[in-house]
Design a protein that fits this description.
- There is one protein chain.
- The chain is of the alpha/beta class.
- It has one domain: 3-Layer(aba) Sandwich (Rossmann fold).
- The protein contains six helices and 13 strands.
- The strands form three sheets. An eight-stranded mixed β-sheet has the order 2-1-3-4-13-12-11-8, sandwiched between helices.
- A hairpin with a 3-residue loop joins strand 11 and strand 12.
- The protein starts with a strand and ends with a helix.
C-alpha cells in the first residue's frame, strides 16, 4: 500500500492513476496518524512552496519525520522533492525538511521560465547505484514543469541542465525525490515508480 499525502495542493489524481496502472494499491490521506503508520509515503507536489506550510500546521510534517526515521520509504515529487531541502526562496518563511543541504532558488537564466517540457537526466557519481533509477538509461527524457530548482549537493543522484545545472533526482537511504513528474514521464517514469514500490516491498519483507 502506497500512502499519498494530501496537503490540498498535490497532483494526486495522475500519481494515483500511475500506481493503479502498475497494479499497486494506494490511499490518499492528510491524517498524521495514517502517515506515521504508512508502509510507504509519496508527496506529490505542485504549486507554490508556501502551500507546504500546511504539512507543518496539520502535524503531517512531524509524522513524516518519524516515519522516515523508522525507515519508511518516502518519495517527494516536484515541490515534494524541494520540500526535502532546507527551504525555497519562493517562500523564505516556510521551512523545508532539511534532509538535503541548501535552498531552492528561481532559475537564473535567459531561457524561458518556467522550465516546462521534456528534458534529459544525467546520473551523478552518487547516482551510479541508485535504486530509483535502476534500469533507467542515462540521458533518459522525463517531464518537468517548474520555476524553482534545487542545488546540486550531496545526495543528488541525477542532474539536468536548463541554462544551469540543477538537481533532478535525490536519493539517500529510504528517501527519494524527483524534480520531474514520473507519473507524466512515460515508460521511464513508470519504471521509477515501480522501482520505488519494489524497494518498499523489500523493506516490508525484512
Amino acid at each position: 500500500m502506497i500512502t499519498l499525502i494530501d496537503y490540498k495542493a498535490g497532483n494526486l489524481t495522475s500519481v494515483r492513476k500511475a500506481f493503479a496502472y502498475l497494479g499497486v494499491e494506494s490511499e490518499v490521506t492528510d491524517d498524521p496518524e495514517r502517515v506515521r503508520d504508512a508502509q510507504a509515503l509519496v508527496l506529490p507536489g505542485v504549486g507554490h512552496f508556501c502551500t507546504t506550510e500546511r504539512l507543518a500546521t496539520s502535524g503531517v510534517r512531524d509524522a513524516v519525520r518519524e516515519a522516515i526515521g523508522r525507515g519508511t520509504p518516502f518519495l517527494g515529487i516536484c515541490v515534494g522533492m524541494q520540500w526535502q531541502f532546507a527551504g525555497s526562496t519562493e517562500s523564505p518563511e516556510t521551512a523545508g525538511l532539511g534532509l538535503f543541504e541548501g535552498a531552492c532558488e528561481r532559475f537564473q537564466t535567459s531561457l524561458k521560465v518556467p522550465h516546462v517540457g521534456w528534458n534529459q537526466i544525467g546520473r551523478t557519481q552518487e547516482g551510479a547505484e541508485s535504486r530509483l533509477l535502476e534500469g533507467v538509461p542515462d540521458e533518459s527524457f522525463v517531464y518537468f514543469t517548474h520555476s524553482y530548482r534545487a542545488p546540486v549537493v550531496a545526495g543528488v543522484a541525477a542532474v539536468t541542465s536548463y541554462g544551469e545545472t540543477f538537481a533532478a533526482c535525490v536519493e539517500r537511504e529510504n528517501v527519494f525525490g524527483t524534480q520531474f513528474h514520473p507519473e507524466k514521464s512515460g515508460d521511464m517514469g513508470l519504471r521509477m515508480l515501480k522501482n520505488f514500490c519494489d524497494y518498499a516491498a523489500e523493506r516490508r519483507a525484512r
